[in-house]
Write a structure and sequence with these properties.
Blueprint lengths: L3 E6 L7 E4 L15 E5 L1 H4 L7 E6 L14 E5 L9 E6 L2 E10 L2 E5 L8 E2 L6 E11 L7
Antiparallel strand pairs: 1-4, 2-3, 4-5, 5-10, 6-7, 6-10, 7-8, 8-9
GO molecular function: DNA binding; hydrolase activity
Protein name: DNA polymerase V
Keywords: Autocatalytic cleavage, DNA damage, DNA repair, Hydrolase, SOS response
């Protein structure tokens, strides 16, 4: 039961976006244009280390407790060694999943961040490959309708 779709590797970009050098309150408008001073690269902001970084699309609700929701795009690094506590993209017996990696008494566990789902203990005959560590998630806030 896959809950992640790999979209492809990221490539380095020279595009730079306007960066507003001001904290924007969520309550009322700010004259942010008065503070536009710099250009910011998404490569730098998201610490993209191309070609060791790729994008995956999430389906399902098993990671909502980690702030990862259906339709989110994950930035995944293959350059970071996975450690217990990291959110990872893993291939378990042919299914691609996003889960939190855990370890108890030497046994690895893929944990959901939703109490509706049980942890998946990795058994001796399981085939587990960690495809990368999730570093960021991106969410579209536009309403469709």
């Amino acid at each position: 039961m896959s809950n992640t779709q790999i979209l492809g590797a990221l490539q380095a970009s020279s595009a730079r976006l306007p960066y507003f050098d001001a904290h924007i309150p969520a309550g009322f408008p700010s004259p942010a244009l008065d503070h536009m001073e710099n250009k910011l690269s998404l490569d730098e902001l998201l610490d993209i280390n191309a070609p060791h970084t790729y994008v995956a699309l999430v389906s399902g609700d098993s990671m909502i407790g980690a702030g990862i929701f259906e339709g989110d795009y994950l930035i995944v690094s293959r350059a970071i060694p996975a450690k217990p506590g990291h959110v990872v993209v893993a291939c378990l017996n042919g299914d691609v999943l996003v889960k939190r990696l855990a370890q108890e008494q030497g046994q690895f566990i893929l944990q959901s961040e939703n109490p509706a789902y049980s942890p998946r203990y990795i058994l001796e005959n399981d085939e587990l490959t960690i495809w990368g560590v999730v570093t960021h998630s991106l969410r579209n806030h536009l309403t469709h309708g």
